[in-house]
């Protein structure tokens, strides 16, 4: 569905003559209706790759194509196909807006009448398992987990084919994190979409992600089927990650 081919993003640093290879020669394929986990430590290039995929940044080299539409370059596809949810919901939510206006903003921008947009917002709240009581609340009146659900509902309003979730559970406690994973899993099934799930933790993806790629210093160290990688890791880095899980 989405093909990332030999994509690099190099930044020229403010320190003269130095460059950071945030993403370096990365290739991967995202299939339809699958959850793809991208794992890596802080600074490994995960968010940069997410922003390249969403089109917020342009690669230094390489190409990202949308196979569903016959190799259309990613920059030419309608904006709604891919939606990004950030790690910090406060970054993407206006604190002075009510939840119903936050969720229905993308619909209003695509010329939905207000009443219709609100009733759609209520449906979307239900999809992320929040009651209609949330419609009139402000972000400050919602918990971190609830805010992430609202951010997901907002992304779903555009019926994306691909949802990119960049560390959306990092700030949540394990129970709420697990509920969020269950929600994403059920959305994958009910909406038939694909999810690129970005995390620094390898221990949450078993039984959740179909495929996984492990990234370090901008380079994919290993990629493949989740079950196989967890049971039979090939790269030294993945082995070390798994060992650190079992001994902590
Ligand atoms: N605009 C920029 N200019 C220069 N360097 C950058 C820029 N954005 C990111 N970098 C560098 O690129 C590398 C990858 O950053 P990125 O944010 O993609 O990592 P990450 O894997 O998302 O980390 P985290 O888990 O902390 O979110 C880092 O070394 C970072 O310092
Ligand atoms: Mg990041």
TrEMBL record:
It comes from Paenibacillus ferrarius. One of its GO terms (molecular function) is ATP hydrolysis activity. This is ATPase. Keywords: ATP-binding, Nucleotide-binding, Transport. It holds the Pfam family ABC_tran. The keyword Protein transport does not apply. PANTHER family: D,D-DIPEPTIDE TRANSPORT ATP-BINDING PROTEIN DDPF-RELATED, TRANSPORT ATP-BINDING PROTEIN. SUPFAM superfamilies: P-loop containing nucleoside triphosphate hydrolases. One of its GO terms (biological process) is transmembrane transport. Gene3D superfamilies: P-loop containing nucleotide triphosphate hydrolases.
């Amino acid at each position: 569905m989405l093909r990332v081919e030999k994509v690099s993003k190099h930044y020229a640093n403010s320190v003269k003559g130095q460059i950071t290879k945030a993403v370096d020669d990365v290739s991967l394929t995202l299939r339809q209706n699958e959850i793809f986990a991208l794992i890596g430590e802080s600074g490994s290039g995960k968010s940069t790759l997410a922003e390249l995929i969403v089109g917020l940044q342009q690669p230094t080299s390489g190409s990202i194509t949308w196979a569903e539409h016959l190799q259309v370059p990613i920059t030419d596809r309608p904006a709604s196909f891919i939606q990004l949810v950030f790690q910090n919901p406060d970054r993407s939510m206006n604190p002075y807006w009510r939840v119903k206006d936050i969720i229905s903003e993308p619909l209003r921008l695509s010329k939905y009448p207000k009443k219709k947009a609100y009733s759609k917002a209520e449906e979307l709240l239900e999809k992320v398992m929040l009651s209609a009581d949330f419609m009139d609340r402000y972000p400050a009146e919602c918990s971190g987990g609830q805010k992430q659900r609202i951010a997901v509902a907002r992304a779903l309003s555009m019926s994306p084919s691909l949802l990119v979730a960049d560390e959306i559970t990092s700030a949540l406690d394990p129970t709420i994190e697990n509920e969020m994973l269950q929600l994403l899993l059920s959305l994958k099934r009910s909406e038939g979409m694909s999810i690129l799930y970005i995390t620094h933790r390898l221990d949450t993806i078993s039984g959740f992600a179909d495929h996984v790629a492990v990234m370090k210093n901008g380079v994919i160290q290993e990629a493949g089927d989740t079950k196989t990688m967890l049971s039979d890791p090939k790269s030294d880095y993945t082995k070390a990650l798994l060992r650190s899980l079992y001994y902590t």
